[in-house]
Hints:
Elements: E1 7-12, H1 22-38, E2 43-46, H2 60-70, E3 75-82, H3 88-101, E4 106-111, H4 118-125, H5 135-146, E5 169-173, H6 176-185, E6 189-191, H7 200-210, E7 222-230, H8 234-252, H9 272-282, E8 286-289, H10 291-305, E9 309-313, H11 319-334
Parallel strand pairs: 1-2, 1-9, 2-3, 3-4, 4-5, 5-6, 6-7, 7-8, 7-9
Helix pairs in contact: 1-2, 1-11, 3-5, 6-7, 8-9, 10-11
Organism: Evansella caseinilytica
Domain Luciferase-like: 14-300
GO molecular function, one term: oxidoreductase activity, acting on paired donors, with incorporation or reduction of molecular oxygen
Amino acid sequence: MANQQVKLSILDLAPVLEGGTPAESFRNTADLARHAENWNYHRYWLAEHHNMQGVASSATSVLIGHVAAQTRTIRVGSGGIMLPNHAPLIIAEQFGTLESLFPGRIDLGIGRAPGTDQPTARALRRHLLSGSSDFPEQLGELRAYLNPALDGAPPGVHAVPGEGLNIPIWLLGSSGFSARLAGQLGLPFAFASHFAPDHLLPALELYRHHFRPSPSLEQPYVMVGVNVIAAATEEEAAWLATSQEQQFLSIIRGERQKLKPPVNKIDPLWSDYEKAMIRGNMLRYAAIGSTATVRNKLLAIIDETKAEELIVTTQVYDHQARLHSFELLAETMNQFH
Length: 337
């Protein structure tokens, strides 16, 4: 039986629907966050992506402020901010502002990928001299702005607001690099198994092996990303899931489309190879089906990973069906809390 204290959280990509607009996505995001708070989800994270027609959360810090202002108690944060795209001082100031506005509710999840393609990364940074290779130095600078007792910030430069504020920093990753670094620094670690599951278990082993207690964390703390679509029946859930499958298909084809409505037959849309890549690999850590199916799959993932927390993403076209999936998930998993 899984750990009964496993927390349940939400990762929102602010999906832009085919035929819809980012403004509608932001209204849906705020609505989902308010419901999530009532359903006792632990935290609500938003992800930084760029140049993707179907993802509206590119200005992640702004959207975090919008969600935090629409809710009262749920933790809100980034899953994550892509540090190579930003000056560390800017992130310290932005999250210092958020923490000052919404004290005790803000998380800063950090990733080292660009969250986009190379031309867009160049447009974001103006050059590619900085990137994932100097990520530890960038992270050290960011942490020093928030905590002046740490080394790494330029002398005489201060994050106002930000300096001295207790903003939890998480490292996010899909490989062993961030896992090892999170362990060495004594930070919580979140793995992007909702789209890149290949190295999940080795990364968690690395993280736990290298973990050193820190002032912010005494024991390793793991969060695992999972795709979840819960519905009244297996058939309905599978049908709703074809929107997500079409989105993955567009990503591997380099098309970056908006989130499409579900289809009755998806096999004509993809090749056998693409189907195997998406269902057999990219969606390996997914729980799609009735509440019993979803519960059993999630309990198996918890047992396999020994995660302290699951962060769930649900790419469903119809907003009411998406809400219902999260409600069913909360009801079925709360039975074990």
